[in-house]
Amino acid sequence: WFKANRPQLASLRSTMRVVSVFVMECPLMILAVLLTTAWANLEHCPKSVPEVTCSGFRTPNEYLEQLAQIGYDNSHRPPCRDGTNVGPTVVEVQFRLTQIDRVDAKLGTMAVHGYLRSWWHDPRLAFAPQVNGGCLDVVNIPGMQRNSPLWTPDLYIDNLVSRDMDNTDSLTQISSDGSVWRSEQAVLVLKMSFDLGKLPFDSHIAHVTMASYSQNISGIRLVAKGGAIDAAESGEGVKALPLKSVAWSFDDNGENVEASGFITPGKLQIIEGWDYLQMSWSIARKPRYFLIQVVVPCTLFLLVSYIQFFVDANAAPARAALAVIPVLIMRTMSNFIYKSIPEGSQSMWLDDFVTTSMFLCVFAAIHFSVVQYLKILEKKKAAKLVGLRQTKDIARRLTDIAKSRKVPLITLLQKFAPVEKELSQVEINAAIESARKELDAMNQEEIAEGVEAQEVNVADATPDAQSQSESAAQSNMHRVKVRSDAAKSDKVTEADLLFIMYAKDIFGKYDTDASKKVSPFELRGLLTYFNIYMSQKQVDQSMCRLLRDLGNPTPVDESKASLNFSQFVTLLVQIERYSIKRPDGLLQLKAYFQGIAPSERWDVI
Asked: How far apart are CA 372 and CA 378, in angstroms?
């Protein structure tokens, strides 16, 4: 085996020799590196300061022990600067603002980070500084809370909602002359009043209001840092670092101070003998979020709602979608706004904007329903014109009969109208039989059944008046309506006269002077009953064109022309031959609106 693996064993022996050399030499190398590093650090160490000979305490704990030995009483406030306890202790206060975490307009709160600083003078804490042989010029006592061995003003925040006391610290610094400076790290949630009337262009005043819990103005007077006692506004109440916020901007006298920070004075109020120091600053909302998320979408969907006015009114599903969807979106926008603001009764610009937009969209939806209602009426009117045109041949035949007999068409229609007669039952049955034979001869069997049913009902009809009923019962006679002899001789049925009689009734409404003629102004109103809308000028021209085609001369002033009923029916069944649907321009508003249907007028308006 050794002979077979001799090359491998030789390689392993060489490797072991190298490892043994490294292990032997490594401690020496490591020691050399450590010595070199230590020497380099030694060269960079600062020069030592010779110890100064002093007397007295050297640490904060020794200082506090010394105070306890001399009988310091932390339950008594410091005396005035003149050494008496007659006047109140002056406490200067300042809020060092470092960060604004959250502004909640819905709850009316603001979360801030900063430091609550206070200054006062306690001559009982004075000690010898270094120049007088003491060991310290100032004593720094970290983490001292309210139950400290020193007297501290029992200040509280009047508009405080909550405060985080777990992750904060404090520092109390005592100078040799007895001046005390205390700084407390503060993570606060403050109550504040919001005026959202100009939302999203609103601005607000945030504040920290401090007061003493147990001492009125006879015991403690509060002033802002460097302020004057009893001054309404003085000193430095708030001192802020440069602040950055994506939602709020900070200004001082109209100048943006986000990059430089700001200082605002304190405002003092005396309420029922107690000092209340308000340290305030102003914030203004950056409106871009609400503009992009609310104002712009509302405007766009309002335009979408407006687009429906340009969609054909016959496309009801498309117009319904354009009318209803923006209303739902506006309602959603309104709910979105109230997620971040209080649900109160105050007037807000943004809410008024969304509400106004929603009302406009609702008005557009109502407009859509009105247009559809007008379209239904117009379809009914158009159906009457279609029915009249389907009887065009009958209308022409009636017109020709009226001409041949040289009577007005209205007079002829009156002759063709049913007449009242008193018939016995035998005469009624004979009339029914005659009508059946006549209809059979015209190969209208289906109509014959309808006529028979109608005549039987007529035969069974009751008299119109009680006196006639009694008379008919006595003589076995019935007062009924039957076809006129003229209608029978000319073979004109009531079905033929249906639409023409409707046109006659409408013609009679506009023939107010019973002249059996209508003027161009009256004709324009007549045409609207058949869903025909033209300007007054177009009606004048169409009327005169027809009259000239019929061989009648027309006046130079076309508005003086007139049509009788026969001519009106002739014009009605072929109105498209005598007019071109060419509405007048918008500049001629009256003529323009006369030439379009009511549903189109609503869209234009």
From this structure: 10
Looking at residue 392, its amino acid is K
Lowest mean pLDDT among 4-18, 52-66, 448-462, 518-532: 448-462
Q: What is the DSSP letter of 391?
A: T
Proportion of the chain in helix, strand, coil states, percent, rounded to 5: 45, 20, 35
**If you search the block for the tokens 């029916």, which residue do you land on?**
569
Other beta carbons within 10 Å of 38: 10
pLDDT tens for each residue of 284-306 = 999 999 999 999 999 999 999 98
Query: What distance in Å separates the CA atoms of residue 273 and residue 336, rounded to the nearest whole number?
Result: 46
Angstrom distances, CA of residue 382 to CA of 389, 532, 600: 11, 8, 15
Distance between CA atoms of residues 486 and 412, nearest Å: 9
286 neighbors 248 (Cβ within 8 angstroms): yes
- What secondary structure, in 3-state letters, does 348-384 show? CHHHHHHHHHHHHHHHHHHHHHHHHHHHHHHHHHHHH
Tens digits of per-residue pLDDT, 465-517? 444 444 544 456 777 888 888 888 888 888 888 888 888 888 888 888 888 88
Provide, rounded to the nearest whole percent, the portion of the chain with pLDDT above 90.
38
Q: How far is CA 512 from the centre of its chain?
A: 54
- Coil/strand/helix, residue 130: helix
Q: How far is CA 167 from CA 99, 164, 184, 187, 188, in A?
A: 16, 7, 11, 9, 12
Structure confidence by residue, pLDDT tens digits, 400-409: 888 888 888 8
pTM value surpassing 0.90: no
Asked if residues 531 and 597 have their Cβ atoms less than 8 Å apart, the reply is yes
